[in-house]
Amino acid sequence: KPYKCSECESSFSHKSSLSKHQITHVGERPFTCGECRRSFRLQISLIMHQRIHAGKSEMAFLCPQCGKNFTRPSHLLRHQRTHTGERPYQ
Hints:
Helix content is 40%, strand content 13%. It is of the alpha+beta class. It has a domain at 55-90: Classic Zinc Finger (Double Stranded RNA Binding Domain, 2-Layer Sandwich).
């Protein structure tokens, strides 16, 4: 991988990936939510966060056991473990 981070041992195939990674070292959070003022390093993180302010229509991942809604499928899967008791990271 030709693009190496000067701050750590990470390397990347694309220059754009290195640029995104380097933000983690400076602590910069240039993307701010207009609703709650929370800030994010990446624009995609802000976009995903803004779904919580959009209402239930944006929350498309419904737990079939308790009816709780989630904006991301990964959050639903993590939540479903509370019903099953599964602890995959032990």
